[in-house]
Design brief:
single chain; 60 residues; mainly alpha; 2 helices; rod-shaped
Length: 60
């Protein structure tokens, strides 16, 4: 498993928590930051998945 997948998943979780806190407190800035962090985490996770796929294809 590529380290980008792990880091991306962690960012997604952190972003979800931050977004939820923003919603609960009514802080739109925190909510937006959380949503943005989720998107970055998803992109990083996807990049890690692509690296895994390439590595798996070349190992065969």
């Amino acid at each position: 498993m590529d380290s980008n997948r792990v880091a991306g998943a962690a960012k997604q979780v952190k972003g979800s928590i931050k977004e939820a806190i923003g919603k609960l407190t009514g802080n739109t800035r925190t909510e937006a930051e959380g949503a943005a962090e989720k998107v970055k985490g998803k992109a990083q996770n996807t990049a890690g998945g692509a690296k895994d796929a390439v590595r798996d294809a070349t190992d065969k």
